[in-house]
Amino acid sequence: MMQALLNGLVSGLLIALPAIALSLTYGILNFANFSIGAMITTGAYLAYIANTSLGAPIVLAAPLAAVGLALIAIAIQRGVYRRIRNADHVTLLVASMGVAFVLENVLRFFYGADVRTLDVPVARPLIWHGLRLNHEQLQIAVVALSAMAAVAFLLKRTRLGRAMRAISDDPDLAEVRGIERARTVDWTWAISGVLTALAGVMIALDGIVDPLIGMNYLVSVFAAAVIGGLGNPFGAVVGALIIGLVEETSALAVSTTYRQGISFVVLVLVLLMRPQGLFGAVRIRR
Amino acid sequence: MTGYLVAILTFVSLAVLIGFALNVQWGQAGMINFGLAGFYGVGAYTAAILSKQGVDGFTAAVAAIAVTAAISAIVSLATIRLREDYLAITTLAFSESVRLVLMNETWLTGGTNGIRDIPRPLVGLIGGEYYEGFFLALCLILVAIVYLVLDRIIRSPFGRAMRAVREDDVVAATLGKNVLALRVKAFAIGGAVLGLAGTLHAYYFTYIDPGEFAGFITVYAFMTAIVGGKGSNRGLLVGACTVMVLLEGTRFLKDFVPFLSAQQAASLRLAMIGAGLILILIFRPDGLSSEYRLSVQKPVHPAPIPD
Amino acid sequence: MTVSAEALEMRDVCAGYGASDILASITLQAARGRITTIAGPNGAGKSTLMKTLVGLLRPRLGQILTDGRDITHLSPPQRALAGLGYVPQERNVFKNLTIGENLRIGFEFIRRKVADKEFNAARERVLDLFPDLSARLGEAAGTLSGGQRQMLAMGCALIPGPTTLLLDEPSAGLSPRYVTTMLDAVAAVNRAGVTVIMIEQNLIEAMRVSHDVILLVAGGIRGKWDASVFLSDPDVRSLFLGGAKEKSAGSGQERVSDDASAA
Question: What 8-state DSSP symbol labels residue B23?
């Protein structure tokens, strides 16, 4: 049981990164980015390319993947989302689904559906009082916590962070107070890309790289963000930990293949009981 | 050649039915269903499982329609008061969960191996080479029936109520419309059509597996709905044909780019469909037709100020 | 055509939402260093006019100039950089951010790359104007009362040192004490050199501090008066209610009509 809790916390930390990314873009752009699963996968593949084709060790491949995905995210924002004239949240939602589809199939085009792995040295897990923590889990914890600290600092203490929070609060007022929307949005996507790529790399480290790995986390990530309150990055972390714990502990009773099904059930329960999540404001239709 | 055409037209009929369902749920009632593929799969598997058990084609179809409609209603209940994003998330999550169930509950669904040799309705009566043609005719008749039924619904007070709710549900509620009931009904009607489409899919292909009910169907459906002009069933026919032409046209891509493997060609085509959806949203979000609406005169200049 | 040194000028501006215009060929001038009130009945288009001045609504036709410079195609952030400050009527503070953060944001995107010392000095000036705010810098703006929120909103608009301040109903929904505070602040700010253009329904209070009044009715300008005589002018009532189209010739005051032919 304790092992399940530990695994759950680590799993939650992993999910937290794309959940934060989802909340950030939701807060600023007011739509749920359905391509987040495909973005996770893309991040993993970018690291794979850096790792195997360029021979970079993971310590280098991960940041390269992060920067790469940040640039791709900005390109998508400028090439797709910004060009949609009637940019209401529904159209953007559907567009993001199209983006997901394109990303996934482009990856499949170049790399096929074969399963690949990152080239990393194998290491022995750590044992502590009967609890097992393997290297990948330790990496996940360290990277995720550092990333979250960085995001918290960014939001609370930098001008960009204030700009992001201001636009999230009231876009028109933000413009009037001198905040350039387009630039801030670009930066938000860049940050989203970095967080999502890191998650993708860590998922790949702990397992495999194939075109669907991100998709396998999509429901969990959304559930985490919704539980926390869509648009609240801090809430997303809490939501992610909850989802991680629930998924891992449920594995004691139900087959692990239903992991996302469990998250679906949790999601529905949260939406029925407290749709605004723990920390959000409920957006009733219009 | 005729065999090819018959096959294409059958695919188009299925696509049109899925599009009709989306038009009711999204076009008319404003509810985003990102889990279309999942509901479609529920319909197909219900019909397949029952048929394999010996239930006759018609009864199995009715059961599939009922089951899919009921499940649609239940799924929509969770997010009925919330913004469209939440329904989109929930339906997608539902679709993923359906996929997991299909893959794992081998005793029921055959797991990743799927279900083979689904008995086709009336195949004993109409044998061999005429069956494909008969089936196409059946599909086209059903498409026509569904079109007429949905058209009546769209023009009815219920249809107007749905659209009122889509535009501004606060106003609709104050006018006395039961917003919740309307939304659930609309979603269920769409679900019923999806159940029918799934059933036809199962009978036509006689083999289904979980991999068929993937996101591609959803993207494709949205594309046909948007190209045709959201909400317009007539436009949908145009949309479905356009998208099918695109789809089939790119099938021949392999001939022009010979060094692509089959897998790559398939991925490229799917990527192009996704790109197509994006392009339509950017350049032609209102599609090619417009929806049924009593024409309204819009004033161009402000009224002159009376002296 | 005289060379324009007006703080703010609109020439033949037509603007609206969707198919029809709310503002029909508006031409007006607001002089530098003065307080101009835009008055008019509900639905006249005053808020639309503000939004057009600020850049949240693009005019279909016409030009907007400040100190002779054409700003018609500038975005709201660019106009803020050009010296326009704006206090909206509602939704005028960032509710989820603290008072201190609101003020910081008001400053840092317009006065970029400026030393902290200058920000602190600017903030002190604002807090001198609205002392109520100093005790609560760490609290979320959403917890403030209506009057305090107005003060904060005005503080945020003032803190970067705008040359022209646009106010949309600064006294709306406020108790009499706050109304006086707000309008006294407006007068003080104007004495310090800021041009003020405001929409105000509370005309008695507004006339106390204003220099000029422009009357907007049903999307059109009906005239410009000196604030001291506006309320006593018999024409005003009939214009207000839409009866007459223009100020009558015999009123003896400065006259501005809808078209640009007036000198």
Answer: I
3-state secondary structure of C84: strand
Tens of pLDDT, residues B25-65: 988 888 889 999 999 999 999 999 998 888 888 888 999 99
How far is Cα C34 from Cα C28, in angstroms, rounded to an integer?
Answer: 14
Terminal-residue alpha carbon distance, chain C: 7
Token pair for C54: 């600020």
Of B93, B278, B282, the CB nearest to A267: B93
Min CA distance, C38 vs chain B (Å)? Answer: 20
CA torsion sign, C185 to C188 to C194 to C200? Answer: positive
**B268 interfaces chain A, CB cutoff of 8 Å:** yes
C55, C94, C108 member nearest A173 (Cβ) = C94
Residues of chain C that touch chain A, judged by Cβ-Cβ distance less than 8 Å: 54-56, 75-77, 80-81, 86, 88, 91-97, 101, 104-106, 108-110, 156, 160
**By the 8 A CB rule, do A267 and B64 touch?**
no
Helix or strand (DSSP H, E) at B283: helix B262-283
Query: What is the pLDDT averaged over residues C149-169?
Result: 94
Classified as helix, coil or strand, A55 is: coil
**A106 to chain B nearest CA, in Å?**
6
Are the beta carbons of B307 and C219 separated by less than 8 Å? no
User: What are the pLDDT digits (tens) for B221-236?
Assistant: 888 888 877 777 877 8
Best to test chain B binding among A30, A94, A215, A219 (most B CBs inside 10 Å): A94
**Residue position matching structure tokens 């106003």:** B171
Q: Does B278 touch chain A (CB under 8 A)?
A: yes
Say whether A268 and B215 touch across the interface (CB within 8 A): no
- Residue B114: both structure tokens together: 């799927």
B30-67 exposure pattern, b = at least 16 Cβ within 10 A, e = fewer: bbbbbbbbbbbbbbbbbbbbbbbeebebeebbbbbbbb
Tokens of A206: 């702990």
Which tokens hold the place of A177? Answer: 């107070």
DSSP letter string over C142-153? GGS-HHHHHHHH
Element (H, E) at C221: strand C220-226
Q: In chain A, which among 178-217 make CB contacts under 8 A with chain C?
A: 178-181
ipTM: 0.87
The minimal CB distance from C219 to the residues B302, B306, B307 is found for B302
DSSP state of A209: B
Sequence-ordered list of residues with C-beta below 8 angstroms from that of A159, at least 6 positions apart, any chain: C108, C109
Q: Which tokens hold the place of C88?
A: 């909206």
Q: C92 and A159: CB-CB below 8 Å?
A: no
Question: Where does chain B show beta strands of DSSP type E?
Answer: none
Is A159 in Cβ contact with C94 (below 8 Å)?
Answer: no
- The span from the CA of C78 to the CA of C55, in Å, is 9
Q: Longest Cα pair distance anywhere in chain C, in angstroms?
A: 57
Asked if B81's CB is within 8 angstroms of A285's CB, the reply is yes
Residues of B in contact with A284 (CB under 8 A): 81-83
User: Tokens for C245?
Assistant: 């189209």
**Do residue A80 and residue B81 have CB atoms under 8 angstroms apart?**
no
**pTM for this predicted structure:** 0.87
Q: Which of A218, A216, A220, A264 is nearest to A239 (CA)?
A: A220
Question: How confident is the model at residue C252, as a pLDDT?
Answer: 43
CA distance B141 to B200: 12
Closest CA to A58 of A165, A153, A136: A136
Inter-residue contact C215 to C40 (CB < 8 Å): yes
What is the Cα–Cα distance from B277 to B271, expressed in whole angstroms? 10
How many other CB atoms are there within 10 angstroms of residue B68's CB atom?
Answer: 32
